[in-house]
Amino acid sequence: MIAVAISAALGLAALAWYMQRRRPARVRLSFARLLPDPPDEPSPKPRFAPIPPVRSLPFWLHLLLVALCLAALLTDVRVSTSNAPQDIGLRLVVDVSHSMGVQDETGTRLDSALGLAQKILEAATEAAQGGTVCIDAFQVGTDVSRMQPDHLDAARVRPEAGDIPTLLRAARADPDLCVITHVAVLTDLPRPAVDWPTDAPQLIWAQVGSPQPNAGIVGVAYSPPQLGGRSAGVVLTLETYGDMPPPVVTVQGPGGVTRPMVIQAIDRAGRYLASFDVRRGGTFDVALDKGGAYVGDDHLRFSLNTPDKIGIDWRIPGLPAVSAGSSKAEDDIVVMELTSVDPVPQGNAVLLAYQGWPNEAVEPRIGAFVEDPALFDPLNFDVLERHLPKGLTAQLPTGFIPQLTSDNGAVIVARRDNPPGLILPLPVLTGDPDVQALSQTLFYTGLQRLTQRGDHQLTPIWKTPDGTDIETAWKESDTARPLSAPSEIRFSMQSAEITRETPIWPWLLLFALVSILAERLWLLSRSLTRKPVR
Q1: Per-residue pLDDT tens over the stretch 163-200
Q2: Which of 180, 376, 469, 515 has the most CB atoms around its CB within 10 Å?
Q3: What is the DSSP track for 16-59?
Q4: Do the Cβ atoms of 411 and 405 come closer than 8 Å?
Q5: How far apart are CA 206 and CA 201, in angstroms?
Q6: What are phi and psi of 166, to 5 degrees?
Q7: Average pLDDT, stretch 141-147?
Q8: What is the pLDDT of residues 59-91, one digit of tens each?
C-alpha cells in the first residue's frame, strides 16, 4: 500500500511538472539602439495548463518510468524457461537387498526383477517410436549406488538390508544424465501408501516374488545379574510370517549347547520369546531350525562379558554386607553413609544411607511421593506412617530428587536416574520389631532395585550359512507379504522439459532504466540540433 502511494505521488509530480507553463523569454533585439524595446505582455499566462503536454516525449517517458516501477513492486508474474526436451527418460531402481536372493520356481527374486526390467526397457523403446530413450539406473541396498544400464545383468544380491525409504530416495534423486519422465522400482516390498506428486515422473512400482512363509531371529536382549541369586540372562525375539510352526532355537555358548524354551509373546501374533541364563561370558552362536524361505535371519552371533555376581563396594562397617555380592567388581554398586565429609560417587550406582530412626515427631505423616512398585510394593504404608523416619532437610546431593517425603517437607527417600542411586534411612538391627522389619525391608529392597538395570538390546551379527555377515537382517524377515497390485507399464510421448520459473520484476526495472536513458538521449539530441537565436 505504501508502494502504491509513493508511485502515485511520483506520477502526479511528473504530470504537474509537465503541465507548468513558464513565461516566454524576454525578446531583446540586437538593434535596440534604433528601436524601443517591445512592450511587456499585458497579462501573464496561467501557471498550469489544464491539458497535459501530450506532444512531449519526455513526459511520456517519465510516465512510463513511474508505471514500470509500480509494476515491479506489485507484480509477481513469473515466466517459465525450458531446455531441449527428451522423449522418454527412464529411471530403473533395482532392489538388491539380501531378501532378493529368496528362491522360487523361476529363480531368485532378483532374477525376476532383472527380467521385468528388460521388458520395461523394451516397452519404453517401442513407445518412443525411434525417439530418444535415456536410461538412468540405481541399485539399492542399505545405500544407493548408480549402475550402468548396459550391465543390469551384473547386479548381485548384497549382504545387507533395504527398506522403502531408501528406495523412494533413489526414485526421487535429482536427474543427472537426462530428464526423467518415468521411474520403475523393482523390489520385493509392497508399494507404500505415499503421496506421489502429480507433476512428478510416472511411478511404476513392481513387486516381485510370490509370498513365502519365514521365521527369523529379529532381536537379542541381555538382562544383567541381580541380587538374590538371579544370574544374567538373554532373551531372543523370534518372528514368524505366513504359515509357520513355532520356531525351535539352538544356542551354542561357553557352557555348551542348549535348546531354550520358546513361548508365545502376548503383544503380537507370530512373535515368540526364548530365554536362557548366562553363567559366564563369551561368544554365543544362535541357530534357528527350519527357518523358512529366507536364510539370512536364521543364524546370528553375539558376545557377552558378564560377571557371575553383582559387584558391591560395601562401606558401612556396622551393617552386615550382602553375601551374594562380590567385592570390587568392574560395575560396583557403592553402599555408604551419607555424610558431609565423604564425596558422593558420580560414576557408579550408589546407595546412600542416613540415620533416620527414630522419629521424634508426635504424629508423623507421609507427604508427597512418586510411585515405584519395585521399591514400595513390599512395604505396608500404615506401618511406615506410624514409624516414619525423620528424613533429610538439608540440600540433596547433585542429581538426586525426592521420591518420598513427609508432610513437613523432609525427604525420606530420594533417587538418581543416571547413574542409578538411592538415598534411604539406615536399617535398625535392634529395638522395636516393627521398625527392624520395616527399615531392613526398605533398605535391602532399595539395594535390590539398584540391581534391576533392565534389559539391554544387543547388536548381534547375522550370518549366512557360508559365514557372510549381514547388516540388520531382521528387516528382511517378512517374505510372506501379499503382492500389491502391479502398476500399469505405460509410456507417454509427451516431451518432458525442465522448467525454471524466473520473476519478471528485474526486466521491468531494466525497461525503466532504458526509459530514463531514452529521455536523456532525446534531450541531448535536441540540445545539439537547436539553432541559436540571432
Answers
A1: 999 999 999 998 877 888 899 999 999 998 888 887 78
A2: 180
A3: HHHTB-PPPPPP--TTTTTSPPPPPPSSPPPSB-SS--TT-HHH
A4: yes
A5: 15
A6: -70, -40
A7: 91
A8: 777 777 777 777 777 776 666 555 444 478 899
Contact between 292 and 479 under an 8 Å Cβ cutoff? The reply is: yes
β-pairing verdict for 214-223 and 456-457: antiparallel
| End-to-end CA separation in angstroms for the chain | 53
Amino acid at 91: R
Cα 96 to Cα 102, 190, 203, 389, distances in angstroms = 11, 15, 19, 66
Whole-angstrom distance, CA of residue 465 vs CA of residue 442: 52
Q: Rounded to whole angstroms, how far apart are CA atoms 73 and 421? A: 66
pLDDT at 252: 94
> Does the pLDDT value for residue 287 go beyond 90?
yes
Identity of residue 84: A
Which cell numbers in the block locate residue 474? 531382521
* Number of continuous H segments (helices) and E segments (strands) in the chain: 8, 27
Residues 6+ apart with CB under 8 A from 366: 381, 384, 385, 388, 404, 405, 406, 407
Q: With both helix axes pointing from N to C terminus, report the angle between 505-529 and 57-74 in degrees, rounded to the nearest 10.
A: 170
Q: What is the pLDDT of residue 533?
A: 47
